[in-house]
Amino acid sequence: MSKFVAFDIGASSGRVITGLLNDGNLELNEIYRFPNSGIKIDKSLCWDTPKLFSEILQGLKVYVTKYGGDVDGIGIDTWGVDFVLLDKNDELTGPCYHYRDFRTEGMENEMLKIIPREEFYSKTGIQFMEINSAVQLYSMVHANSSQLSIADTFLMIPDYLNFLLCGKKANEYSIATTSQLFNPKRNDWAFSIINKLHRPNSCCNALSKPAEI
Fold first, then answer.
1. What is the C-alpha to C-alpha distance for residues 20 and 26, in angstroms, rounded to an integer?
2. Which residue spans within the chain are E strands per DSSP?
3. 8 A C-beta contact, residue 38 and residue 47
4. Which residue range forms the structural domain that includes residue 90?
5. Domain tally, the chain
6. Largest CA distance in the chain
């Protein structure tokens, strides 16, 4: 029998689900659930990433109690669009902002002054919304955020939680497609868009596909 653990984390709650695969039959069980919400840091709305990671560890403790220490695979998924920036020492450059934080208000229009709407859509093919990662990133450029000068790695939220868990930095394909920084024609980051938003390509790791069972 193969044993898997999935962390399904949404913008208001998270849950831990085990998948037991035996002779082609998959049994799913929810073993742990926890709340999730934004927190205020100064005037900004942010995510409590240390708490999220502590809940992941707690979920693994529950799993070990029920099923023992062996596991064949662990997966983490979260809501889209939000991200973190890490410096060269793999430390957070600043808070992990919430997609509802006020800093993106009016930033979509400012961003489109640099990259015309038609060009942006032809390269990314995604709906325009102020919560998109592209707009969030541009809001930091517009505000001349000090975080950008020391940023070395861009990770979406589940990629960051995976990094904390296993120590490997990787950008997973499916969550990257929510960012408005992905080019579906090239099946890769929209590097021309990223460059025009004044962010170096080096911050983005090569995209990785999720493992197949």
1. 6
2. 2-9, 13-22, 25-35, 38-41, 44-47, 73-77, 83-86, 153-156, 171-172, 182-183, 188-189, 207-208
3. yes
4. 2-208
5. 1
6. 57
Flag whether 55 is in a domain. Answer: yes
Q: Tens digits of per-residue pLDDT, 101-144?
A: 999 999 999 999 999 999 999 999 999 999 999 999 999 999 99
Q: Is residue 213 part of a domain?
A: no
Query: What CATH number did the domain enclosing 24 receive?
Result: 3.30.420.40
For residue 28, tell me if it sits in a domain. yes
Mean pLDDT of 160-164: 97
Which two structure tokens, joined as six digits, stand for 108? 């979509």
Distances (CA, A) of 167 to 139, 161, 162, 164: 29, 10, 8, 6
Question: Does residue 86 sit within a domain?
Answer: yes
Write down the pTM of the prediction: 0.94
